[in-house]
Amino acid sequence: MSKVIYATGVTGFIGQYFLKKIFKDYDTVLNFGRNKNITIYQSKKDPINTDFDIKLLDDYQSEKLVHLATYYNPKPKNSQEELQLKQSNFDFPVSLCTSLKKSGLKHIVATSSYMQLLGKNYTNLYTKTKSDFISWARPKFDLTEIFLFDTFGQNDKRNKVLDTFIKNAILNKDICVPSNNFNINLTHAFEVSDSIVNSLSLKPIEYMIKSNNQISIKKLAETVITQAKSSSKILPTFKSENLIDKIDYFPENIYINSLKLDFQEQIQERYNEIRKTYSF
Question: Which end of the chain is more exposed for a tag (fewer CB within 10 A), N or C?
Protein backbone atom coordinates (compact mmCIF):
# COMPACT_ATOMS: atom_id res chain seq x y z
CA MET A 1 0.00 0.00 0.00
CA SER A 2 1.30 3.46 -0.96
CA LYS A 3 2.59 5.53 1.96
CA VAL A 4 1.03 9.00 1.71
CA ILE A 5 1.71 12.33 3.40
CA TYR A 6 -0.18 15.61 3.05
CA ALA A 7 1.58 18.96 2.62
CA THR A 8 1.20 22.62 1.79
CA GLY A 9 3.79 24.92 0.27
CA VAL A 10 6.00 22.37 -1.52
CA THR A 11 6.46 24.79 -4.42
CA GLY A 12 8.00 27.36 -2.07
CA PHE A 13 11.67 27.75 -1.20
CA ILE A 14 11.80 25.34 1.76
CA GLY A 15 9.09 23.19 0.23
CA GLN A 16 11.08 22.31 -2.88
CA TYR A 17 13.86 20.90 -0.70
CA PHE A 18 11.35 19.08 1.51
CA LEU A 19 9.71 17.46 -1.51
CA LYS A 20 13.01 15.92 -2.62
CA LYS A 21 13.77 14.61 0.87
CA ILE A 22 10.38 13.20 1.81
CA PHE A 23 10.39 10.54 -0.90
CA LYS A 24 12.94 8.61 1.14
CA ASP A 25 10.12 7.78 3.57
CA TYR A 26 6.91 8.29 1.58
CA ASP A 27 5.67 7.20 -1.85
CA THR A 28 3.13 9.96 -2.43
CA VAL A 29 2.78 13.63 -1.44
CA LEU A 30 -0.52 15.44 -1.78
CA ASN A 31 0.09 19.18 -1.82
CA PHE A 32 -2.91 21.40 -1.12
CA GLY A 33 -2.99 24.87 -2.67
CA ARG A 34 -4.81 27.98 -1.52
CA ASN A 35 -6.80 28.01 -4.76
CA LYS A 36 -8.51 24.73 -3.77
CA ASN A 37 -6.40 22.47 -5.92
CA ILE A 38 -4.39 19.35 -5.15
CA THR A 39 -1.10 18.34 -6.74
CA ILE A 40 -0.17 14.67 -6.43
CA TYR A 41 3.56 14.05 -6.39
CA GLN A 42 5.11 10.61 -6.74
CA SER A 43 8.79 9.86 -7.11
CA LYS A 44 9.98 9.72 -10.75
CA LYS A 45 6.49 10.54 -12.06
CA ASP A 46 5.05 13.77 -13.42
CA PRO A 47 2.87 15.61 -10.89
CA ILE A 48 -0.90 15.38 -11.33
CA ASN A 49 -3.01 18.51 -10.78
CA THR A 50 -6.67 18.23 -9.86
CA ASP A 51 -9.40 20.21 -8.13
CA PHE A 52 -9.93 19.59 -4.43
CA ASP A 53 -12.33 16.70 -3.95
CA ILE A 54 -12.80 15.14 -0.53
CA LYS A 55 -13.65 11.81 -2.20
CA LEU A 56 -10.16 11.72 -3.74
CA LEU A 57 -8.72 11.41 -0.25
CA ASP A 58 -10.29 7.97 0.09
CA ASP A 59 -7.54 6.75 -2.25
CA TYR A 60 -4.80 8.84 -0.59
CA GLN A 61 -5.29 8.62 3.16
CA SER A 62 -2.77 10.07 5.60
CA GLU A 63 -2.70 11.00 9.26
CA LYS A 64 0.07 13.60 8.79
CA LEU A 65 0.21 17.08 7.25
CA VAL A 66 3.38 19.15 6.86
CA HIS A 67 2.20 22.76 6.67
CA LEU A 68 4.89 24.89 5.01
CA ALA A 69 2.78 27.43 3.12
CA THR A 70 3.01 30.98 4.41
CA TYR A 71 2.47 34.51 3.21
CA TYR A 72 5.33 36.61 4.54
CA ASN A 73 4.49 40.28 4.91
CA PRO A 74 5.47 41.80 8.29
CA LYS A 75 4.48 45.32 7.16
CA PRO A 76 1.24 45.25 5.15
CA LYS A 77 0.68 48.51 3.31
CA ASN A 78 -3.11 48.46 3.08
CA SER A 79 -6.27 46.60 4.08
CA GLN A 80 -6.02 44.31 1.06
CA GLU A 81 -2.61 43.03 2.18
CA GLU A 82 -3.91 42.69 5.74
CA LEU A 83 -6.80 40.57 4.46
CA GLN A 84 -4.39 38.44 2.42
CA LEU A 85 -2.37 37.74 5.56
CA LYS A 86 -5.44 36.50 7.39
CA GLN A 87 -6.73 34.45 4.45
CA SER A 88 -3.34 32.87 3.72
CA ASN A 89 -1.94 32.23 7.20
CA PHE A 90 -5.14 31.50 9.13
CA ASP A 91 -8.28 30.95 7.03
CA PHE A 92 -6.65 28.62 4.48
CA PRO A 93 -4.98 26.18 6.92
CA VAL A 94 -8.02 26.17 9.24
CA SER A 95 -10.37 25.31 6.38
CA LEU A 96 -7.99 22.68 4.99
CA CYS A 97 -7.33 20.97 8.33
CA THR A 98 -11.03 20.95 9.15
CA SER A 99 -11.68 19.06 5.91
CA LEU A 100 -8.70 16.72 6.32
CA LYS A 101 -9.71 15.83 9.87
CA LYS A 102 -12.84 14.20 8.44
CA SER A 103 -10.52 11.96 6.39
CA GLY A 104 -8.39 10.96 9.35
CA LEU A 105 -5.81 13.75 9.81
CA LYS A 106 -4.30 13.51 13.30
CA HIS A 107 -0.84 15.12 13.25
CA ILE A 108 0.21 18.53 11.91
CA VAL A 109 3.81 19.65 11.52
CA ALA A 110 3.75 23.43 11.09
CA THR A 111 6.65 25.80 10.56
CA SER A 112 6.68 29.12 12.41
CA SER A 113 8.98 32.13 12.42
CA TYR A 114 11.50 32.78 15.19
CA MET A 115 9.78 36.17 15.47
CA GLN A 116 6.89 34.31 17.09
CA LEU A 117 9.23 33.54 20.00
CA LEU A 118 9.43 37.24 20.79
CA GLY A 119 7.17 38.92 23.33
CA LYS A 120 3.88 40.68 22.64
CA ASN A 121 5.69 43.97 22.05
CA TYR A 122 7.09 42.51 18.82
CA THR A 123 3.86 41.03 17.48
CA ASN A 124 2.77 42.12 14.01
CA LEU A 125 -0.08 40.94 11.81
CA TYR A 126 2.14 38.37 10.10
CA THR A 127 3.21 36.70 13.37
CA LYS A 128 -0.31 37.04 14.80
CA THR A 129 -1.98 35.22 11.91
CA LYS A 130 0.64 32.46 12.11
CA SER A 131 0.25 32.13 15.88
CA ASP A 132 -3.54 32.23 15.68
CA PHE A 133 -3.52 29.12 13.49
CA ILE A 134 -1.24 27.32 15.97
CA SER A 135 -3.59 28.24 18.82
CA TRP A 136 -6.56 26.93 16.83
CA ALA A 137 -4.85 23.65 15.87
CA ARG A 138 -3.21 22.76 19.18
CA PRO A 139 -6.30 21.41 21.01
CA LYS A 140 -7.59 19.60 17.90
CA PHE A 141 -4.50 17.73 16.61
CA ASP A 142 -1.16 16.36 17.64
CA LEU A 143 0.88 19.45 16.80
CA THR A 144 4.57 19.78 16.06
CA GLU A 145 5.53 23.45 15.81
CA ILE A 146 8.98 24.17 14.35
CA PHE A 147 10.47 27.65 14.62
CA LEU A 148 12.74 28.62 11.72
CA PHE A 149 15.42 31.29 11.65
CA ASP A 150 16.82 32.85 8.47
CA THR A 151 17.35 30.41 5.63
CA PHE A 152 19.25 30.42 2.35
CA GLY A 153 20.28 28.06 -0.43
CA GLN A 154 20.11 27.32 -4.13
CA ASN A 155 17.17 28.56 -6.21
CA ASP A 156 16.23 31.15 -3.59
CA LYS A 157 14.12 33.88 -5.25
CA ARG A 158 13.28 35.80 -2.07
CA ASN A 159 16.10 38.36 -2.27
CA LYS A 160 17.06 37.88 1.38
CA VAL A 161 20.02 39.55 3.10
CA LEU A 162 22.78 37.14 1.99
CA ASP A 163 21.72 37.31 -1.65
CA THR A 164 21.43 41.11 -1.51
CA PHE A 165 24.98 41.35 -0.15
CA ILE A 166 26.30 38.98 -2.82
CA LYS A 167 24.66 40.92 -5.66
CA ASN A 168 26.01 44.21 -4.31
CA ALA A 169 29.49 42.72 -3.98
CA ILE A 170 29.43 41.43 -7.56
CA LEU A 171 28.51 44.93 -8.74
CA ASN A 172 31.05 46.55 -6.37
CA LYS A 173 28.20 48.48 -4.77
CA ASP A 174 28.45 49.59 -1.16
CA ILE A 175 26.61 47.50 1.43
CA CYS A 176 24.53 49.24 4.10
CA VAL A 177 24.46 47.55 7.52
CA PRO A 178 23.19 48.49 11.00
CA SER A 179 25.49 50.76 12.97
CA ASN A 180 24.85 48.64 16.07
CA ASN A 181 25.57 44.95 16.57
CA PHE A 182 22.90 42.89 14.83
CA ASN A 183 23.10 39.09 14.66
CA ILE A 184 21.29 36.63 12.44
CA ASN A 185 21.24 32.86 12.32
CA LEU A 186 21.51 31.36 8.83
CA THR A 187 20.58 27.77 8.04
CA HIS A 188 20.83 26.16 4.63
CA ALA A 189 17.48 24.95 3.28
CA PHE A 190 19.02 21.52 2.61
CA GLU A 191 19.53 21.06 6.35
CA VAL A 192 16.20 22.65 7.25
CA SER A 193 14.36 20.12 5.09
CA ASP A 194 16.32 17.21 6.60
CA SER A 195 15.38 18.44 10.07
CA ILE A 196 11.70 18.82 9.17
CA VAL A 197 11.53 15.30 7.72
CA ASN A 198 13.21 13.95 10.86
CA SER A 199 10.65 15.74 13.07
CA LEU A 200 7.90 13.49 11.73
CA SER A 201 9.15 10.73 14.00
CA LEU A 202 9.54 12.96 17.08
CA LYS A 203 7.14 13.74 19.89
CA PRO A 204 4.64 16.45 18.80
CA ILE A 205 5.86 19.47 20.77
CA GLU A 206 7.69 22.75 20.03
CA TYR A 207 11.10 22.63 18.35
CA MET A 208 13.43 24.97 16.53
CA ILE A 209 15.94 24.55 13.70
CA LYS A 210 18.91 26.74 14.53
CA SER A 211 22.34 26.12 13.02
CA ASN A 212 25.74 27.12 14.37
CA ASN A 213 25.94 29.84 11.72
CA GLN A 214 25.28 32.77 14.06
CA ILE A 215 26.91 35.85 12.57
CA SER A 216 26.65 39.62 12.74
CA ILE A 217 25.33 41.43 9.68
CA LYS A 218 28.61 43.35 9.45
CA LYS A 219 30.70 40.17 9.58
CA LEU A 220 28.48 38.57 6.93
CA ALA A 221 29.04 41.57 4.65
CA GLU A 222 32.81 41.37 5.25
CA THR A 223 32.80 37.66 4.42
CA VAL A 224 30.90 38.17 1.17
CA ILE A 225 33.13 41.06 0.09
CA THR A 226 36.26 39.02 0.79
CA GLN A 227 35.01 35.97 -1.11
CA ALA A 228 33.89 38.10 -4.05
CA LYS A 229 37.17 40.06 -4.06
CA SER A 230 34.96 43.10 -4.30
CA SER A 231 35.71 46.79 -3.83
CA SER A 232 32.39 47.29 -2.05
CA LYS A 233 32.50 49.30 1.16
CA ILE A 234 30.48 48.61 4.30
CA LEU A 235 28.39 51.59 5.37
CA PRO A 236 26.90 51.56 8.90
CA THR A 237 23.89 53.73 8.12
CA PHE A 238 21.00 52.78 10.41
CA LYS A 239 20.12 51.25 13.73
CA SER A 240 18.18 48.01 14.03
CA GLU A 241 17.06 46.05 17.07
CA ASN A 242 18.94 42.79 17.62
CA LEU A 243 15.87 40.56 17.81
CA ILE A 244 17.57 37.23 18.55
CA ASP A 245 18.89 38.70 21.80
CA LYS A 246 15.31 39.53 22.80
CA ILE A 247 14.20 35.88 22.81
CA ASP A 248 13.90 34.50 26.35
CA TYR A 249 12.78 30.97 25.50
CA PHE A 250 14.33 28.68 22.90
CA PRO A 251 12.64 25.30 22.24
CA GLU A 252 14.62 22.09 21.76
CA ASN A 253 16.91 22.39 18.75
CA ILE A 254 16.45 19.60 16.15
CA TYR A 255 18.96 20.99 13.63
CA ILE A 256 20.69 18.28 11.60
CA ASN A 257 24.12 19.14 10.24
CA SER A 258 23.72 17.12 7.05
CA LEU A 259 25.40 19.37 4.46
CA LYS A 260 29.04 18.41 4.00
CA LEU A 261 30.15 22.01 3.60
CA ASP A 262 31.21 24.50 6.26
CA PHE A 263 29.55 27.92 6.42
CA GLN A 264 32.22 29.63 4.32
CA GLU A 265 31.82 26.97 1.63
CA GLN A 266 28.04 27.33 1.73
CA ILE A 267 28.35 31.09 1.14
CA GLN A 268 30.83 30.48 -1.67
CA GLU A 269 28.45 27.99 -3.29
CA ARG A 270 25.62 30.53 -3.18
CA TYR A 271 27.93 33.25 -4.53
CA ASN A 272 28.92 31.01 -7.45
CA GLU A 273 25.29 30.26 -8.27
CA ILE A 274 24.26 33.93 -8.24
CA ARG A 275 27.30 34.90 -10.27
CA LYS A 276 26.42 32.27 -12.86
CA THR A 277 22.64 32.72 -12.87
CA TYR A 278 22.22 36.47 -12.91
CA SER A 279 23.34 38.80 -15.66
CA PHE A 280 24.63 42.09 -14.31
Answer: N
